[in-house]
Amino acid sequence: MKKLVVLxxxxxxxxxxxxxxxxxxxxxxxxxxxxxxxxxxQKDGVITIRGKLVVTKDEKGVITSVKVERKKTGxxxxxxxxxxxxxxxxxxxxxxxxxxxxxTTKGEEKWITVEKFAEKQKxxxxxxxxxxxxxxxxxxx
Length: 141
What we know:
Layout (H helix, E strand, L loop, with lengths): L1 H23 L16 E3 L2 E12 L5 E8 L4 E5 L3 H10 L3 E11 L2 E11 L22
Parallel strand pairs: 4-6
Antiparallel strand pairs: 1-2, 2-3, 2-5, 3-4, 5-6
């Protein structure tokens, strides 16, 4: 009887350790809060992302694809080519944009149905001349 109790306890311990390793190896736990500062802001399935708008056209000039490339994270979001998606492509192709919309995933690709968008300037004042800073540089007095 004593051997049966010890065997049961050992089996329970092995099962507990196996489950602990399995939980630790699961990086995409939906209950775990996102702690990536570069992750897109998300609220009720609606996200806001910033990146470069890349528009592809065929030989006739018809828009065939629109994507937002996020350099910081190395990710790309495809834009759904409805009326709002086409408006975005026609007005801001090649620019840095902020896009808000509903995100869906099809296979490995992320898609956004655009709700609103805006052109975003890179950080800093684009009209202000760049002042190099670093060792050996004098401050302007």
